[in-house]
Design a protein that fits this description.
136 residues; four-stranded antiparallel β-sheet; alpha+beta
């Protein structure tokens, strides 16, 4: 199944034979303090910059109705994010009460975002549209 929107993601997760847990990392886009005027101008046009993970949330597909509800919930945190990264994993919460696997997955995801190696993650903008990252 091609995932072309957030609803496709939810449908795919709900169709899996094993229960799924969706992992979301919300990130802000910015430029470093020492960015050049050209880098700042490029970022203002929506190009370049660096992503900083802000918050991590895990949900089961049953806990989600649609992108709008998730975005509204994220706004209640007060964090201003531009990109939401998503990964999925088999939901082992019934077997792992401390969720170590979820914590480790979030650590890997945030490191991937910091290093710009996000090719294996799904990404959506604030409107819920999918994003594809190109080479810098």
């Amino acid at each position: 199944m091609d995932i072309t929107c957030f609803d496709d993601l939810l449908q795919a997760a709900r169709l899996q034979t094993e229960p799924q847990r969706l992992l979301f990392v919300f990130a802000a886009s910015g430029v470093p303090d020492d960015a050049t005027p050209a880098q700042k101008a490029s970022h203002a046009r929506g190009e370049g910059g660096e992503l900083t993970p802000l918050l991590c949330v895990d949900k089961t597909p049953a806990e989600l109705t649609d992108f709008a509800a998730l975005a509204q919930e994220s706004r209640q945190t007060g964090q201003d994010w531009q990109v939401m990264f998503v990964a999925a994993m088999a939901d082992q919460s019934a077997y792992l009460p401390d969720n170590k696997d979820v914590d480790q997955a979030f650590q890997r995801m945030t490191q991937m975002i910091k290093y710009g190696t996000v090719g294996s993650l799904l990404a959506f903008d604030r409107a819920g549209d999918p994003l594809v990252f190109g080479a810098a």
